Amino acid sequence: PRGTASKGSPMVQVEMVEVTILRNEQGALGIDIDERNMVRRVAESCRIADERKDAILPGDVIVGVSGVPLEGRRLLEVMEAGHPGYVMHLERRPLDDEARNELSSNIMTTMRLQAVASGFGEQNDGRRYVSLPGRQVTTGGRVHALRAARR
Q: Which residues sit opposite 22 in a β-bridge?
């Protein structure tokens, strides 16, 4: 562990963790991250090489992948496609269970965000939903089917 502090703030212990995450049957890693590479949720489908349940937790910040530091870049910018798994280098700060659970609440899944980023739908932050072809998804996780207009 190492500590970090700014002027006037107490020292915070930061634990460096290394974990190998394998792609699941659907080809996903099973983690949701935010724009700062902070883990927001770990799905049941997340496969950890050594099967430790606490290997990656909400609140962990991914600082590198397979020896490559992120240095301000997004995780997807440095991951090479097609690998069966990745070694994630994490910074872990102490958080209580309530704080970790709060990180996982009210988020959209990576699949939905990737669909929007790839141009398959649109996100409306004001109304808190993602619209994908044939369905609308709220950020609370409920999926509402929409009738596809036949032309």
A: 47, 85
For 40: left if phi > 0, alpha if psi spans -120 to 50, otherwise beta; the answer is alpha
User: What pTM does this model have?
Assistant: 0.62
Q: What distance separates the 2 farthest-apart alpha carbons in the chain?
A: 64
Same domain, residue pair 51 and 68? yes
- Give backbone dihedrals phi and psi of 126, rounded to 5 degrees, phi first: -60, -35
pLDDT digits (tens), the chain, 151 positions: 555 545 555 677 889 999 999 988 888 888 888 888 999 988 888 888 877 767 899 999 999 999 999 998 988 888 877 788 899 999 998 888 888 777 776 565 444 545 555 555 444 444 444 444 444 444 443 333 333 333 3
Output b/e per residue, 116-137; b: 16+ Cβ within 10 A.
beeeebebeeeeebbbbeeebb
* Contact predicate 121/131, CB 8 Å: yes
Question: Domain check: are 132 and 60 in the same one?
Answer: no
Q: What CATH number is associated with residue 32?
A: 2.30.42.10
